[in-house]
Amino acid sequence: MKILNLYAGIGGNRKLWGDEHEITAVEYNEDIAKVYKDLYQNDNVVVCDAHQYLIDHYKEFDFIWASPPCPTHSDIRRCGVHSGQYEALYPDMTLYQQIILLQNFAPKDTKFVIENVKPYYDYLIKPQVILHRHPFWSNFNIPMIDIEDDRKHESINGSGSVYGVSLDKYDISNKRQILRNMVNPEVGKYILDVAMDTVKYKQGGLFDFIGETA
């Protein structure tokens, strides 16, 4: 499967995808891209603007994952403005531009998912599902599932391991923010498995996870 991983960061969502796919990761920050490449040496890592890369290449992939910048949508921003900690900013409409683009122009055989934070405002476009406190917009059904996660943002200080990934050996700034931005790898694997039809479910009150079909 040809996969496009946009706003890749250090690859939290990609961690459990394995090496059988042809993965292109796009990350704007060169230092972060170097860490990603060190962790996932088989992936093609492109250092450029993910927003532009998407519109130039969206027809070339079987599965697209995008995690566009979230700070201007987060309730942390709203609370920070009211407390005087932050200045008010226009919400970054990159998020909705990409949703609209892929909903209307993605090839029929291309599956996509766009991930972000729950916003402080009413959704302008309703997400397909909310998993692990994050909304996901997609063109395929993503059944609900409980994924346990003991990670707490306030406990991340830039050292140590988060989701089994450590930045201790890297000379890179903003380690705490980079680790905080990681998508739970279990969520990343679950969504890719659903997109590939390699998991099956039974219908109850909610969908219950059964397991991989092999």
UniProtKB/TrEMBL annotation:
Keyword terms: Methyltransferase, Restriction system, Transferase
MF annotations from Gene Ontology: methyltransferase activity
Pfam families found in the cross-reference section: DNA_methylase
Entry-linked InterPro entries: C5_MeTfrase, SAM-dependent_MTases_sf
GO biological process: methylation
Catalytic activity as recorded in UniProt: a 2'-deoxycytidine in DNA + S-adenosyl-L-methionine = a 5-methyl-2'-deoxycytidine in DNA + S-adenosyl-L-homocysteine + H(+)
SUPFAM superfamilies associated with the record: S-adenosyl-L-methionine-dependent methyltransferases
Superkingdom in the source lineage: Bacteria
Keyword field contains Iron-sulfur: no
Protein name: DNA cytosine methyltransferase
